[in-house]
């Protein structure tokens, strides 16, 4: 599915920029959904799975723990948030513990139940209802922000990977992706990275825009959001020694 952003973009691409952009995705990975075996382009059931995963990834916990916990829930048959209420609170705590949520298991179990109630009451138990009802980015953002436990980080992550899937899924470029693109010299450090430019760069290095943006976010996270001590460009420490 195409996620190209159509707009006039005057910035000329250099071969080194294209090579570095592709290197970032190859070294660090792209979409988190794809890494989890979720294909959001394949239909509503997969978007439901991604919603559950994004809920876990959006908390202050290691991504490896969130990934492991999602897989535990997936194997247990919890593939859509609306079904969380069918699992007793204590059993849900046990599943979260098995995934590594030992410090936040009680709080997270309660949050998943509250989220299930909200989706059932407001959206007929279907996350897809949100995408069908709210067809602008502002509408989607506000509807998601009204859900228990959801905030800007989770919303950005979720909608970033739904570009081209939901009509209104056009979030601004992730701040971490913008900083990483400047760090690698994909744009001039005094220049803002635009989505049309990033889309052209993704096309040039033959990756999905969502993978490139996510790869740049991963680069920033691998630096722990502190890039001052790294030379950047093609000598970026993280790209030389990916995690």
CATH topology of the largest domain: Endonuclease III, domain 1
Give Rg in angstroms: 18 Å
Question: Roughly what fraction of the amino acids lie in strands?
Answer: under 5%
Q: What does the oligomeric state look like here?
A: single chain
| Global mean pLDDT | 91
Describe it.
- There is one protein chain.
- Helix 5 (89-99) packs across helix 6 (105-123).
- The chain has 243 residues and is an all-alpha fold.
- The chain has 13 helices and no strands.
- 56% of the residues lie in helices and 0% in strands.
Condensed summary:
56% of the residues lie in helices and 0% in strands. It has 243 residues and is mainly α. The longest helix has 19 residues, at 105-123.
Task: Write out key terms for the chains shown.
single chain, Endonuclease III, domain 1, 13 helices, 0% strand, globular
Topology:
Layout: H1 15-28, H2 32-35, H3 44-57, H4 63-75, H5 89-99, H6 105-123, H7 127-133, H8 137-145, H9 152-160, H10 175-183, H11 195-204, H12 209-222, H13 237-240
Helix pairs in contact: 1-12, 3-4, 3-9, 4-5, 5-6, 10-12, 11-12
